[in-house]
Structure formats: C-alpha cells, structure tokens
Design a protein that fits this description.
This is HTH cro/C1-type domain-containing protein. The protein is α+β, with helices and mostly antiparallel strands. It has 2 domains: 67 residues, Ubiquitin-like (UB roll), CATH 3.10.20; 90 residues, no CATH class. The protein is 49% helix and 23% strand. It has 8 helices and 6 strands, in the order ββββααααααααββ. The protein has a 4-stranded antiparallel beta sheet with strand order 1-2-3-4, with helices on one face. The protein has a two-stranded antiparallel sheet with strand order 5-6. The chain starts with a strand and ends in a 6-residue tail after the last strand. The C terminus is likely disordered.
C-alpha cells in the first residue's frame, strides 16, 4: 500500500495494487489481458500507476505479439547482442533505419516483414550472408570485422568460399548484361551513322574472321 493522489477524493490517499482482467482491442485483435491498477482505500476508485503509466500498454502489446507469433522486444535485443552489435550496426545490416530498430526494441510492434528479417538473423550462417553481401558491395572493413565475429558464433564454420559458386554465377550474369549493353550501343552507333548519311560498313564476326554483310550509302537523309 502506498500514497497516491486520488482524482475522486482530490487528495493523497492510500492505494493497493489491483489486477483486473479486461478485453482490449489491439489493431485487428480482441485480447483478454490482465491490467494493473491502484485502488483507492477511501473511494475504491481505480487509477493507473502514475509512476508507470505505460505498464498496461506494454502488457497489451506483448499479448498481441504472442498472438501473432512476433518476437518480443527483449528477443530482438537478444539477437543483436548475440552478434555484439550496436543498434546502428544491426539496423544497417538488416536494411532498416536506426530509429525503427530503436522503436522495436523500445516496445513498438514490428511489421511482419521486419519480424521475418529478425527471425532470419537468428541463424548465424544466414546473417553472415547478409553481412557478406554488404562487404562485397562496399569493401568496407567494418563488415569484414563483423564477418569474423559471426563466423565464431556457436562454432559455425563459415567462410567466404561458401558463396563462391553463387558469386561466379552472378559474374556470368553481369558479363551477359554487359555484352547485351555493348551490342545495343554498337547498333545504336550504326543507326546514328546511317541516319547522318555516312558510308557505313557493318561486320559480323564468324570465329576469328570478320565478314562484311552490308555496305552502301544510307537510304535515310536528315
């Protein structure tokens, strides 16, 4: 029992803790939760604890996450701590803003998409791959350090060689794209020359030889 100002009595009175089961609606769900109040010993009126006004909201959000199968804030923080990362580092790797991660760890309800990302991060090898992609794209030494830390978690044997086959495939795709781009640029230059009325010779490569398949004045005049 403690003294708290009672809005009904307009004075400080003694209050006891009172737990009441209530139905609340959080987003699209009706949930049965146990709320905590302070009960005035004089008028028996109920008030929320002025020293912890967020208590019942936290209970509601926790129940919602449990019903939806979402990670709780302390679980998200636990994943980040597993990799010994700051909030900024963790958010950077996952592709979310620092402010968003702060809100989630502070109690805000995460989106389904972000929750799936956090769940993926619980797998060291999968998280290692996310960091590896960052390192590939930027070459930043900070990602290299992260890779070393992640590789040592739970005895995971992770190395860059795990991604070599995929990297080679990506390189092949890049080469094909560049090849098509170069061909397109070459054709565009021929069309430009033809349009200008210049004498143009177009060659088609066959093996090591180059065979002319068109020669003549442009039929177009600008």
């Amino acid at each position: 029992m403690r003294k708290t100002f009672c809005m009904n009595c307009y004075e400080e009175t003694k209050h006891d803790e009172e737990f009441i089961t209530e139905i609340v609606t959080v987003r699209d769900l009706d949930l049965e939760v146990e709320h905590r109040y302070l009960k005035c010993s004089v008028c028996e009126g109920l008030v929320e604890d002025p020293a912890n006004l967020d208590y019942n909201y936290i209970v509601d959000f926790k129940a919602y996450r449990a019903a939806k199968g979402l990670l709780q804030p302390d679980e998200i923080k636990m994943i980040r701590d597993m990799y010994s990362m700051s909030q900024r580092e963790f958010a950077d790797v996952l592709g979310i803003s620092h402010a968003t991660l702060c809100r989630y760890e502070g109690g805000a309800i995460q989106t389904d998409h972000h929750n799936s990302t956090f769940v993926l991060a619980t797998i060291p090898k999968a998280f290692h791959k996310l960091v590896y992609r960052k390192f590939q794209a930027t070459g930043n030494a900070k990602y290299e350090k992260m890779l070393e830390n992640i590789a040592s978690i739970d005895g995971e044997k992770i190395s860059q060689s795990d991604y070599k086959p995929e990297t080679l495939e990506l390189e092949k795709v890049r080469e094909q794209i560049l090849g098509y781009t170069n061909k397109t640029q070459t054709i565009s230059s021929y069309v430009a020359k033809l349009s200008s009325g210049k004498h143009v010779t177009i060659h088609e490569k066959r093996g090591n030889s180059s065979v002319s398949n068109f020669k003549g004045e442009s039929p177009w005049k600008i």
